[in-house]
Amino acid sequence: xxxxxxxxxxxxxxxxxxxxxxxxxxxxxxxxxxxxxxxxxxxxxxxxxxxxxxxxxxxxxxxxxxxxxxxxxxxxxxxxxxxxxxxxxxxxxxxxxxxxxxxxxxxxxxxxxxxxxxxxxxxxxxxxxxxxxxxxxxxxxxxxxxxxxxxxxxxx
Length: 156
Fold this sequence. Notes:
The chain is α/β, with parallel strands linked by helices and 156 residues long. It has a single domain (2-150), classed as Cobalt-precorrin-4 Transmethylase, domain 1 (3-Layer(aba) Sandwich). Helix content is 48%, strand content 15%. It is built from 7 helices and 5 strands. A 5-stranded parallel beta sheet has the order 3-2-4-1-5, sandwiched between helices. The longest helix is centred in the middle third of the chain and has 13 residues, at 93-105.
């Protein structure tokens, strides 16, 4: 892993984006992605289903593709059921995010794969929660920064 970290750290000033769709319509999400030059949207929900119109996998993928971007679903970066169950039973977001952090620390290959992809395309991580500090994508972003020293831009 150390050799890979060095490779990523030598990459030219790479940035990546994250966004939560909670406060967006499908149209405003696409507008934000386009305004920031995003080329690949990476859906980091384990189960890309949503009660919010347009944000379930098939419809979102179609809209993103029609907008000229690539859509990828990466369930390996999603929150496992046992951690989602923990949140439902306790409501303790701080402990849930700490547990997700521990989970992701044992699955750094997924973060490395994300970093490899970001070397060749401008990526944006997508999940529901508007505030990245209250969402697992914030932890993914932090781990990616630790690995690469890149800069995240958290879109609103």
